[in-house]
Design goal:
This protein has two domains: about 1-250, Rossmann fold; about 265-350, Sandwich (Immunoglobulin-like). About 35% of the residues lie in helices and about 25% in strands. The chain has twelve helices and 15 strands. It has helices at about 15-30, 45, 60, 70, 90-95, 105-110, 130-140, 150-170, 190-200, 215-220, 225-230, 235-260, and strands at about 1-5, 35, 75, 80-85, 120-125, 140-145, 175-180, 270-275, 285-290, 300-305, 305-315, 320-325, 330, 340, 345-350. The strands form three sheets. A seven-stranded mixed sheet has the order 3-4-2-5-1-6-7, sandwiched between helices. Strands 9, 12, 13, 14 and 15 form a five-stranded antiparallel sheet that branches.
Length: about 350
Amino acid sequence: MHVIAIANQKGGCGKTTTAINLSAALGEDGARVLLIDMDPQGHASLGLGQSTLGRAGLFEVLNGQNDLDDVIQDGVAWGVDLVPATISLAAVEHVLSDRPERERQLIKHLETVAHRYDYAILDCPPSLGLLAVNALRAASQVLVPMDASLYALDGLQRLRELVHLIETRYDLDIPLRLLPIMFDTRTRLARSLFDHLLEQGLNTCATRIRACVKIREAALQGQSLLAYAPRAPVAADYRNLALELRSQATAQQRATTLETTTTATPIEAHEIVLNFQDLECRRLQIAGDFNDWIPDGGVETRQLDGSWQKVLHVAEGAYEYRVIIDGIWQQDPTNPYEVPNNLGGNNSLLRV
């Protein structure tokens, strides 16, 4: 089970919206998803139309009153189950403060249901207390929604400090990825902010989530955006985000398997140059088997006379890949060769 914690100390930057709609997009693609509401405000539960009145939730699990399996609400969206939260969760800090291994309580409960799910999505509270530490300790990676504001930058810095502390103390490596959200490319502020983050070398999702009133309308109806407005452009953004994360998780699993079954041998690498002419875009990236589906990982970018070039160094073989044009994952429009992928679409095929 791949555990994704969605966190940022700043409130109102799209954590719950991302948790709900990323879960829905993963479920729509056939993954089994457990969405865990870790915010005492219970907005992930509310946003999916689930009443928590008189129901046991995450607080009762961490308090030892219920097993995690007992409080799961099945089928709140296609392929998605929910662990709800209530205001009682605000008192969990006192419950856990004197408990042995207090920062590993969530991990222990997740292990009991890990065989049932492909993903656990943790909607973290807008604070960096013991609940957040439990979430980060359990996470395979941390996704940080970022809007174009000074407060979001401050929240990011505080979160990075906490992640570094946890990594140092427990000898962990917790990948942290920024997710541009409510992103309006027409504003100079948004463009300059995220260009600044990229220059700092922070790992940033290729997908960017656009602002759309349909998101608020879907929450009012107690539905995910994908169920309420499946053809809205921002719904496509969340599908692209799910595709990006699933592709990377698959590549990581493949790499881990190869490490345990093969020994390293020298392999001759060939320089391959992919040319993209007359392509109108601000940002072009490429991801595939050759770079573990990490956008532009190990890829050199050149721009010549209005054309793009992507330079790869790969061994002989066949590689599946996709291009990311201004945050949208798609087939290479210059390459007619394609193969079906396991998400219902096609990848471009490169033979070396």
